[in-house]
C-alpha cells in the first residue's frame, strides 16, 4: 500500500537556524533519504518552496479566486513529502518517525486512495 508522509514544520524556526544547525539538518535528511531509497520503499519525494511562494485557488459558483500564500495561517507549514510503499500502517509510521523534521515538527501519515482512472 502507498502512504504519503506529509512533513510539517515551522518555516520561521527553520529560517532562524544558523548555518551549522541547517547543515546538520540537511545531512540528517541526506542520510534518511539514502536509507529509504536503498530500502526500496521510496516512490517519490520533494521539498516544497516556502508558503510565501504558494497560491491558493478557490472556485465558488463557477468563479475562481486566487490568494497569495497558504489557505490558512498556521504555526506549522507543509514543507515536503515522501510517497512510500509500505506493507502496513505500522511500517509507514516507522518510516515517518525517522524523518528529521519529526523531531521538532510533525509528519502526517496518509494512506493513498488508489483509483483506476483508465
Write a compact overview of the structure shown.
With 118 residues, the chain is an alpha+beta fold.
Notable features of this structure?
flat; Alpha-Beta Plaits; 6 strands; 4-stranded antiparallel sheet; 3 helices; 118 residues; two-stranded antiparallel sheet; alpha+beta
Describe this structure in words.
The protein is an alpha+beta fold. 29% of the residues lie in helices and 35% in strands. It contains three helices and six strands; from the N terminus they run βααββββαβ. Strands 2-5-1-6 form a four-stranded antiparallel β-sheet. The chain has a two-stranded antiparallel ribbon with strand order 3-4.
Gross geometry: flat
Strand runs, count? 6
Q: Could you say what the CATH topology is called? A: Alpha-Beta Plaits
Structural class: alpha+beta
Rg value: 16 Å
Biggest sheet descriptor: 4 strands, antiparallel
Number of self-contained structural domains: 1
Name of the CATH first level: Alpha Beta
In helices, the fraction of residues equals: 25-40%
Give the full name of the CATH homologous superfamily: Dimeric alpha+beta barrel
Lateral strand order in the biggest sheet: 2-5-1-6
What order do the helices and strands follow?
EHHEEEEHE
Low-confidence stretches: none
Beginning-to-end CA distance, first to last residue: 19 Å
